[in-house]
Amino acid sequence: MKKEITFNLNNEETTVEVDPKWTLLYLLREVLNLTGTKEGCGYGECGACTVIIDGKAVNSCIFPVLEAEGKNIITIEGLAKDGQMHPLQKAFIEKGAVQCGFCTPGMIMSAKALLDEKKNPTDEDIKEAIEGNLCRCTGYVMIIDAIKSVAAGR
Amino acid sequence: MRGFEYYKPKTVKEAIELMVSLENAKFIAGGTDIMVLIRQKKISPQSVVSLRNIPELAEIDTKDGLRIGSCVTHNDIDKNEYIKKYYSALTDATSQLGSRQIRNVATIGGNICNAAPSADTACPLLVLDAKAVIIGQDSSREVDLDEFFLGPGKTVLSRGEILKEFIMPRFNENTGSSYIKHTRREAMDLPILGVATRITISITSGNEVRCRDMFCTIDSISNILERLKDEGLRCEDVRIAMGVVAPRPIRAKKAEAALKGKIVTPELFEEIGEIAASEAQPRDSVRGEAWYRREMIKVLVKRSLAKSMDRVIRPDEAIYPERLW
Touching check for A43 and chain B: CB below 8 Å? Predict the structure, then answer.
């Protein structure tokens, strides 16, 4: 039986009809066509589906959709403003932190959650923030560099 | 995936009533295990009752000892400075569980109710003498955590009962605790072995430990203890718990009895490790073989005891980074 839920998605009040068995990821990708958020493992292991819910990085692939009710959700699509990329997005490109790109949206969301919480993260903080995001191309060095450059640049 | 109805009760009472009235229902808290099991089609409940929107389950109270609601997330525990200082073993476990994304939603009650032999928070709660407060339809009871686990995935909870919170006593001043998770990776891994200890010590030779800085050397534990021998550090009280060595997390009670009341020496620690290993019944599994686990218990029991003592002797921990352990 479908139910109606309302939540704030990328700064817009959104009301949709959902099936209780859906995950938040399914709603985002298959219903709202926000395909920037990726599905990797589907079991909360890889972090490709990371979104920010009430300021915290969360795996959307194992997040029951009905729990989204009333929440404040940011996806990768919500970062760019007025046609301008978010500093993290720019840094990832400049530092060569993107190869195949599949992990990038999740990686950037985890990084954003960290930078929103801590202005000057240490290397350890950065590693801890992205420990739930698997990247099979870059070896993480460029990614950590990119996040560090944004933290230092402000 | 088969469909299910999703309920979001606001109170414990409402949640229990739902659970009793519904057919084939499952409680869900953080969902990091349940949602995976549902997606893997290992379970297919008709109804899912969420405990996420019940405020009374999400409280931490530090007024008299420690009370942690079952739906407190690992991240909430992680950030709590009071817990870090006085119940350090718990922070050791919550900071190393899963990933940031998992810790943000996964709850301590969920970790315990799954009753996995590898549950990270189980060993710390065991050494911190935690009691589980269980609420039923028209009764409530308190159960020692040591009696809570019955086997893999099995607990004393019956249908319609909810684990409300954990209660832990306040400990004597000279008490330190720690948990060591033995893994191949630092993130997203289950332990090959988990060992937690809590120790209360008294200094029989005087008021202060003279060579407290011994703990920040890179010396072996036996050498550190050798030098501490003259200080006359006596173990007043001790708890040792081990995970992934039996069908459920267990306490090494014989090892505890052998250490309690004695002056700490390297030889004694050696013996304690041996006794703890003899109390375990580890199995061969993908993560490690039984003989290896048994050998590592000897090492980790000593290391965790030393780490707990370190926390008594150098409570600020500013001298050497914790990673040493």
Answer: yes
